[in-house]
């Protein structure tokens, strides 16, 4: 298999975008939450609940759009537990996130046990007029489903919002120095709750994309660790939307490549091929950690994971 052939390379790169899109939604949501100072390690569970909610709603109504909306709502609802515990009660964010992941996984398995193997008519890809006819770029970026196009817009919007608006500056202030933000009159608890819930909703959409668009069926545990990969890619992207998006597409590219290699009947064992995307993520994180130790890369928001109470001010 000549991977550099345009007939092979372009479909793989296009598949990388589709495969990376569900992770991208979860990553963008987590960037919002972590920029506000709240770490959510429960993305895997939130994605699974979102995947089930999206599939169930689409199966019941026949509308993929309603399915995605249900995924967002389910993600917000489950994440509200995390927000209440961590922001309202000051609970440990790591413990709460891990509990959320296990609870979401168990909940989706319980609710979806009678739907395993069922299929739906989800969103189909369509070519964007004019842009879809551009050589190379058209097949790569503009021959996908509407959720892929929305992910482009979401990434650009979050970059603009976080780094170019006053609200984004307030968001970063809450995550970097909540005491200073509180002294400025900002409600740290309200801001953290809002962005944590929106982040959870986007993680739900990530799961909904898997069931409603990517596979168009329900399979227990269908996220296959993508929630944990999303947490890692936030670090890979240094809490920056565009850099994180590149990490998502890199993960998607390795995932698409291993599927192509399996289909081509390569002699490499299938379990090893399935490990490739995760091994690549670990390798990249190792390099990032070493580089960060040398002072090359920016670190996390200063107050990430730290609870805040107004009475703790000096």
Give a verbal description of the structure:
The chain has one domain: ABC transporter involved in vitamin B12 uptake, BtuC. It has twelve helices and two strands; from the N terminus they run H-H-H-H-E-H-E-H-H-H-H-H-H-H. A two-stranded antiparallel sheet has the order 1-2. The longest helix has 30 residues.
Quick overview:
The chain is mostly helical and 314 residues long. It contains twelve helices and two strands, in the order ααααβαβααααααα. It has a single domain (6-312), classed as ABC transporter involved in vitamin B12 uptake, BtuC (Orthogonal Bundle), CATH 1.10.3470.
Describe the secondary structure blueprint for this structure.
Elements: H1 6-35, H2 43-61, H3 64-88, H4 93-112, E1 126-127, H5 137-141, E2 143-144, H6 146-164, H7 166-176, H8 178-183, H9 188-214, H10 226-236, H11 241-263, H12 270-293
Antiparallel strand pairs: 1-2
Helix pairs in contact: 1-6, 1-9, 1-10, 1-11, 2-3, 2-4, 2-9, 2-10, 3-4, 3-9, 6-7, 10-11, 10-12, 11-12
